[in-house]
Amino acid sequence: MEAIDELINAAQTFYDDARANENGRSRSWEHCYRVFRDARTDPSPDYDYLSLHLAFYLASWGMYRGSSFLLQKDYKVHAPIVEEILKPECDCLFGFACTDLRNSDVRAQLKKLYDYIADYFDEIREEVAGREVASPVSPILITKILMGTLGCVPAYDRFFQDGVATYKVTTQEYSLESVRKLAKFYEAHNDRLEEARRGMRTDDLIYPQMKLLDMGFWQIGFEKDNKNHVDSRI
Known about the structure:
Layout: H1 3-20, H2 26-39, H3 47-60, H4 79-85, H5 104-129, H6 139-150, H7 158-167, H8 176-188, H9 190-197, E1 201-202, E2 205-206, H10 209-233
Helix pairs in contact: 1-10, 2-3, 2-6, 7-10
């Protein structure tokens, strides 16, 4: 099966599963993305409320496991990040089209926000550890935040990485160049992907292009992992 065919089928499977489970964890992304969308036009956004939404979305997707430094903090630790994300200069990142990544200003803003989150969490992590931590803050955590609040990059977790590796669409490690390769893949198949994306919405919420890529490649990686587990038992 061609990469584009499997991607569309996998994204549709992910989307359909989310629709079938009213209170499933996939809905956490929808709730988070919607409140951050609405907050961008709110003259007095409730940072506390938004921080709580962000924390629960992250918990839904594994970022509060026992080894996580976030487990030692309450949801209010996200407030500075929420304030940064809602700054007007980040408007260009919200639900952008893949073609927008051709704009150097958009790429610069994405890098600036990524670095801000990394630096902020690095201090929190070292405070929790009580020592200097040499390794960088997990790109999985940062990209999950970017996906949940802005829908501008996929979450580079294990299943997504396995998914993109299956067809070598881009690198498994997060970088601006990796995201640009994903965007180019989307542009190359724009008509088919946009046709699929038009059916992916809930109420007033339209799934952004990067969310389709996130869902599709995650599902491919997830199904590949399940198959490997089954094959190992045969």
